[in-house]
Amino acid sequence: RFDNLFIYQFNIEKDIDEENTLLPPMIIQPFIENAIKHGLSPRSSGGELLISIYKRTARPHSYLYVEIKDNGVGRKEANNNKTNSEGGHISKGIDITINRIKSTCSANGLPDTDCFEIMDVNDNSISTGTLIKIKLPLIENF
After folding, report:
1. Which long-range contacts (CB under 8 A, 24 or more apart) does 18-27 make?
2. Over the stretch 88-121, which tens digit does the pLDDT of each residue have?
3. Is 17 helix (H, G, I), strand (E, B) or coil?
4. Contact (Cβ atoms closer than 8 angstroms) between residue 61 and residue 133
5. How many CA atoms lie within 13 Å of 50's alpha carbon, on the beta-carbon side?
6. Residue pair 11/69 in contact by the 8 Å Cβ criterion
7. Are strands 61-70 and 6-12 parallel, antiparallel or unpaired?
């Protein structure tokens, strides 16, 4: 669809059982879609999307971390492009997903402020993409 505009890579830590480790449905999809649609598609070439998933233990709990990083145009330029092209449409998908992430954390005893972070990736004060960090309690009851 994007005619080789970008490449993507999944880095999944080796000790994660891919068959039995579950993410809540539609938790990472809206962020990946935004990265492609608003960050990478305005580029003319050379886009990169990296999705990393890893597990860490902080006794007594284990956590699943998901990082979504792109080298797109950055949030400021993407927001300018979106405002100009969407004719006043206000998307709620990201806000709803962030609330779901925070609710999942709160329901499992983790402060919701520790569960989600979005930041600009900068090089000499020039935006070179976006990084999303998601932290979820790992529930292993199989």
Report:
1. 20/140, 20/142, 21/55, 21/64, 21/138, 21/140, 23/64, 23/66, 23/136, 24/100, 24/104, 24/136, 26/97, 27/66, 27/97, 27/100, 27/101, 27/134, 27/136
2. 566 788 999 999 999 998 988 888 888 999 999 8
3. coil
4. no
5. 11
6. no
7. unpaired
Q: Per the structure block, which two tokens stand in for 24?
A: 């809540």
- Cβ(97)–Cβ(78) below 8 Å: no
pTM of the predicted model as reported, rounded to 2 decimal places: 0.86
List CB contacts of 134: < 8 A, sequence separation 6 or more.
Answer: 27, 28, 31, 65, 66, 67, 68, 101, 115, 116
More confident residue, 32 or 4: 32
Q: In sequence order, what are the residues at sequence separation of 6 or more whose Cβ sits closer than 8 angstroms to the Cβ of residue 125?
A: none
Residue with tokens 């990169």: 48
Mean pLDDT of the chain, nearest integer: 86
